[in-house]
Amino acid sequence: MEPDQAALITDRFGTTIDGVSAAGTPMLARILARRTQRSYTDAPVPDALIDLLLSVALSASSKSDFQQASIIKLKDAQRRSRIAAHFPAMPWIGKSPAFLVFCGDALRLERIGTTRGHPQRNGDLEAFLNAAVDAALVMQTFILAAESVDLGCCPISVIRNQMETVAEELALPDGVFPVAGLCVGYPASQGHISMRLPAAVTVHTDTYDDTRLNEHIEAYDRRRDTRHAMTREQQRNPKLFGYVDFYGWSEDKARQAAQPEGASFANYVKAHGFSFG
To answer: What is the CATH number of domain 47-191+260-271?
Structure first.
């Protein structure tokens, strides 16, 4: 029996879509039911399968056909362990059967231009955005392809918080930067579907309109709380923010954003090939 597409939409977004039936294509149902996986069995992922999935992933759309994505397969156990050691709260970085790093690569286009006699620096804000989006599209396509063959994945953006270490371990030249790492393996547990904001917040018609944002966020917080209530111990940095009686998604994300990460990444890319002026 095919999954109930309408039920999956309701489960994910807490809403229904008029005119959408329970029946849907297997691909749509699979995406609606997707889960991030952080726990894996010991079964190895064959190299040939990884390479096949990378071929699928690199078939993703690319800005102007520039193809500014590069992927590093991290197979050296010691090298990977040195990176993972910086993130003890995420042991799956070092333990997943496979680990990939998806990079934006603005260097390749710059080198091609020089080779063809049309040298042009490829390091402004537009170049950075183009390369970053290319890498993100490739990574998301890889994830969907991997899930179609019963693998699970977990993106790891936190590697950008240790740019000097990551760049050294991966021998990244100027103009190449990690967008995220990706843990890959066969899931050891079912995981759970992470609720998403409703379309009333994220989808706009003709013009941007967030006049009912607070109302919708409050309802979303309450809906998530019925499934994944956060405990008092999970409240971020109570020494700075204190404790609140109801700690929902919006409070958690507001606290997280109030202490931004990634300063080392911004400093790194500015010093290694990009200018945003």
So the answer is: 3.40.109.10
